[in-house]
Amino acid sequence: MAGAIEREIRAIEKEAGDAISRAESLESLEELRVKYLGRKGALTQALRGIGAAPERERPVLGRLANEARDAIERLLADRRQFLAEVETSRRLREEAIDVTLPGVPRAVGTKHVVQQVLEEIEGIFSGMGFEIEEGPEIETDYYNFVALNFPKDHPARDMQATFLVSPDIVPGRVYRRDPADASHSPVFTQVEGLAVDRDVSLGDLKGTLEEFARRFYGPETRTRFRPSYFPFTEPSAEVDVSCTVCGGTGCAVCGGTGWLEILGAGMVHPQVLRNGGYDPDIVTGFAFGMGVERIAMLKFGIDDIRLFFNGDLRFLQQF
Asked: What superfamily in CATH does domain 113-316 come from?
């Protein structure tokens, strides 16, 4: 009986050693551990037979079984370490980084094209001596209408676009009830300018806007003033520039006229001066206002104002 148990233990040890040496993965190695050392493993079953051996031989068989267990555990540990090193080497090879390859560029944000154009406009007028101010997005009825010579029952209050005048150039967003299409938007960015002093003339207004047009669109740009109406200026005018595409010869962009409208302007109405605390018998002034999106569309040949607002990177990354 004792001899059979001893042979079985030695056979199990040898078989386990051979199987462990051939294991190719940590998963298969774990299966071998369970097969030979688990609760129902081969060596565990052999140990149960020691109880039937003669009492004097049990210590020898017990020691032999423990030595076999220790030997199998060492083989498992050695093979586990070997396989772990093999796996690490494999992963290092597969995940190796070629440091000589060009890096992956990170996407870097830039200023929106409307903001770029707005800052260019501000820079031109700042260079002429204007100061830059920002007003609230939601204006009071008084400052938006009454102070600008709009009586409460005046039909001009129903107009879709108005100027908000302040003592300085005022850039900011404007809201109106317009359906969105290629040339209209319910919200847009506007720059408004005001100059008030003694002896300010219509010639000063024309010279200021002509200089702006040349600096913004190029030195060959021509301007044209057409009579118009605004409640807060008198006289009032719409201002055109020679077409930025055809140079004024006539094309599809300018409708064959050679001109493109860019802004509205005029001499400040005497009542508006009074509402602002000025005496129109002593001082005069001029005012103007322009939509930044329209200015940008003309500068870059953009045919749809909605492109400024839909967040399409293919469009925005061009600027």
From this structure: Bira Bifunctional Protein; Domain 2 (3.30.930.10)
